[in-house]
């Protein structure tokens, strides 16, 4: 978890650097589209701060008031980020409308465009780090931050191309039009982020491919049992919760059943770490003959 917190803290530094570069690019060019790009970077900084607070909260161990831990804090952070994204999009749309009503000629200063391109490159590298490390460390907050940065990178590339076209053609209206497109892109990314986070808050099951793997691990490591059924799963931040019923022969002793459960817990922990496993042992007359067959 310390690695997650270090990456989240570094995101704030990167976000502030990119924010400064993009505002410098806007100041050098006067482009509304570049201004909208800079406004989106403010959201990136807010996102990084919220993500850091979330991963610190989720790292707290379980206590009497939160016996299942604090992992869902990361989903709350993603919802907050989604709200900030919507606000930023509305501000950008307002600026685009003003630019459409009162178009101004652009000064596509090469220095300004180069500064914006540098900011986009920094964001591109960092979003790859966030998504790659976030998935490896199983941190929804880092992945959400990285995915939002990816939309920022795409927006920046489109804005740069558009500003060059607006300058070359003399069509000043292209500048606010591009700003409006950036706003739509920001809104779409915010909606996707909130939708995914709400799924986590609502205890959505793990993805189908992971559920299939969980079933395989149970089947291969439940020697001595007959079947497993009623498998239920959910995520809470980095933590995966798995519950199921394990059917054993009627003559199985408590000690033997406990040994089977211990073996299953070790195997699932190795596959899902960190994970919380709950197993309800049942005699063979409770078998449903429709669950996981033990190999």
From TrEMBL:
Key words, A-Z: Membrane, Transmembrane, Transmembrane helix, Transport
Pfam families in alphabetical order: Cation_efflux, ZT_dimer
Keyword Membrane: yes
Sequence ranges assigned to domain Cation efflux protein cytoplasmic in this UniProt record: 207-284
Listed name of the protein: Cation diffusion facilitator family transporter
Transmembrane annotation, as ranges: 7-28, 34-55, 75-93, 113-131, 152-171, 177-194
Protein family: Belongs to the cation diffusion facilitator (CDF) transporter (TC 2.A.4) family.
Main location: membrane
Keyword Membrane: yes
NCBIfam families reported for this sequence: CDF
UniProt xrefs under Gene3D superfamilies: Cation efflux protein transmembrane domain, Cation efflux protein, cytoplasmic domain
Its membrane topology: Multi-pass membrane protein
Subcellular compartments: Membrane
Domain Cation efflux protein transmembrane: 10-202
Highest taxon listed in the record's lineage: Bacteria
């Amino acid at each position: 978890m310390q690695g997650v917190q270090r990456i989240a803290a570094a995101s704030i530094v990167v976000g502030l650097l990119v924010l400064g570069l993009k505002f410098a690019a806007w100041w050098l060019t006067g482009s509304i589209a570049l201004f909208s790009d800079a406004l989106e970077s403010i959201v990136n900084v807010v996102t990084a701060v919220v993500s850091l607070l979330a991963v610190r909260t989720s790292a707290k161990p379980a206590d009497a008031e939160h016996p299942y831990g604090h992992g869902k804090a990361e989903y709350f952070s993603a919802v907050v980020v989604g709200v900030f994204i919507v606000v930023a999009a509305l501000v950008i749309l307002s600026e685009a409308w003003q630019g459409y009503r009162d178009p101004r000629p652009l000064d596509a200063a090469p220095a300004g465009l180069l500064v914006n391109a540098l900011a986009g490159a920094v964001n591109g590298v960092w979003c790859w780090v966030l998504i790659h490390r976030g998935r490896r460390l199983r941190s929804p907050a880092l992945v959400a931050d990285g995915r939002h940065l990816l939309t920022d990178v795409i927006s920046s590339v489109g804005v740069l191309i558009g500003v060059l076209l607006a300058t070359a053609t003399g069509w000043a209206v292209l500048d606010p039009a591009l700003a409006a497109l950036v706003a739509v892109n920001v809104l779409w990314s915010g909606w996707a982020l909130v939708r995914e986070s709400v799924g986590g808050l609502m205890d959505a099951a793990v993805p189908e491919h992971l559920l299939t793997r969980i079933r395989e691990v149970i089947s291969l490591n439940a020697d001595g049992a007959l079947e497993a059924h009623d498998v239920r799963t959910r995520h809470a931040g980095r933590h995966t919760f798995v519950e199921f019923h394990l059917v054993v022969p009627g003559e199985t002793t408590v000690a033997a059943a406990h040994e089977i459960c211990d073996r299953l817990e070790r195997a699932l922990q190795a596959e899902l770490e960190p994970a919380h496993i709950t197993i309800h042992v049942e005699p063979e007359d409770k078998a449903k003959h429709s669950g996981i067959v033990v190999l």
